[in-house]
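As a warm-up, study this chain.
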Amino acid sequence: MASKKFIQALELLESEKGIKKEIVLDALKEALEKSYKKNYGGPKSIIRVEINENNGKIRLYEIKHVVDDVMDEDFELSLEEAQMINPKYQIGDDVVTEVAPEVFGRLAAIQTKQLLKQKIREAEKETLYNEYIDKKDDIITGIVDRVEERFAIINIGRTGALLPLNQQIPGEKIYEGQHLKVYVSDVERNTKGTHIGVSRTEPGLVRRLFEMEVPEIFDGIVEIKSVAREAGDRSKIAVYTSHPNVDPIGSCVGPKGSRVRNVVNELNGEMIDIIEWTDDPVAFISHALSPSEVVYVNINDENHSALVVVPDNQLSLAIGKKGQNARLAVRLTGWKIDIKSASEAEMEGIVHQQNDHFEETFEEEMITDEFDFEEDFEEIEEPVIEKVVQEVDISQEDVVIEEAEEDEGLYNEAIESHELELQDEDDESYSNDYDDYDDDYDDYDDYDYDPKYDEDIDYDEFDKYYDEK
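Now compare it with the structure written out below.
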């Protein structure tokens, strides 16, 4: 009965801890061997342990070599002693003697138990490490077990993973019992066990989320070339495909934006810019600075840098708040980027001649179709006129459509007046944005820096929590 329970315990241990039955049996054999040598034999004794995996019966044998002159009694036996056991033994034979399990006293049993527990613990650490080292740089879903001021513990299955405060998305509220997707950033094995570090701020999290949401990326049709991220605020990803009939950006956005929306929701509302990758650095850098328009890019291969000229009213947009857009573009492209406005470049005597590609692109993006109200006004249907009035935000008190149809001059005058007001507001807004811009936007390493995040995590508290569970 006891042997059957022993086998059942081994099977339960394998299912709960993931430790194979063979590993536990080998550990038990080693523990019995060491315990017998320490209490009844000697350090050089030869012991063989056999365990029946079907019924759990244990048999232990001591082996001694028959010699003419005994030098070490631990593993040698004289011919006379051997022939007392069996007259057929000769010099050079091995005498195998079975040791009854009852020979183990209370102290030997306790030592065997301690050795077995140690072996099982080591096997568990090894199994745990081998399982999660394969999941490094991947996403796993866990349940928040505990939330502290400086870290959170995420239950990821057979163990807990540490999520430090500086690896949490700024502004994100984490609560106990929450299902959370985390990026496995580190798997470390030491004397205390296997520590698994997870993150919510790594750029790899964005990459893996898109692989989960976009079948074309998972299948390799669309490739994510690079990712730049400032967690909780904004990310940029560069995508590419060699298939002429596949739109890489559209694949990532998904029908009605469903795919990118799922990623944004998982990242707590973080904005994501998706741009198309190209091996042409001029085009790639201009794409990376979106949503800003780019007039001209001058590449310096020697310094791996680029001079970018943007329209005057796009300079603040190209640089971004606290230099964020430019900073992400630098990380995404790997090029050092210097951004100047068109008027600034002209004042400094920088001659930029747009190539055909940029001239065509710039004209297509900047030049919009405008109505010639003097010639085409009568051909415009009334609903279209109402739409135009709504887009320029002219109130019904200023322009009445019926009056505009009667008096085209009055309508045109109202349009021009309102456009001037909008232009004044844009100039004022641009001036305010530009005043807030820090010229040293390249030095971004110290923004929102809090030295308390550099404090060491109390791993002992982490271990104690999971040892007690």
